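User: Can you help me understand a structure? I only have the sequence.
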Amino acid sequence: MRTLVLNASYEPIDVVTWQRAITLVMKEKAEMISSHVTKVRSVSRSFSAPKVIRLKRYISVIKSLHQGAPYSRINVFKRDRFQCQYCAKQLNAKSATIDHVVPQSKGGGDTWENTVCCCEQCNRKKGNHTLDQAKMVLIAKPKRPSAFTYILNQLEEFGLNELFGAAHS
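Assistant: Let's start by predicting it. Here is the structure, written out as tokens:
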């Protein structure tokens, strides 16, 4: 379970583990806004697992917003909306794979611009080849999502995009 962290001004700023969220609430650094249905237990207490918390003090996040979204496998899947970037097949976290547009063996790295969400069949078909060699075409050119897009994806994951008036295409 993950927890969305809102700044004191209700801006989404991070996603943390439920354990970190409970720690922030127990230390009175944050308040719980909503919780998961699931309860978590310690030896002597039972808690609602936080779904959304709000920090009690405002934290400046301008610097991190200019850097954009952090690169990770799951963030590539979210950027590509869990859709294979070759055949448009809709995937889930278990069936999605990462494809390197320029294969790692040919110097391609783990970057926003070189990785896409891909189904297993297309990943096998492309293999260790370039797009030209494999005669495959990408649906969209991969790029680093803006901080705004990253935040919208986080809101969507928690079902809060409409709450904040966010429209995502």
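Now, to help you interpret it: The radius of gyration is 19 Å. Residues 2-66+147-157 form one domain. Let me know which part you'd like to focus on.
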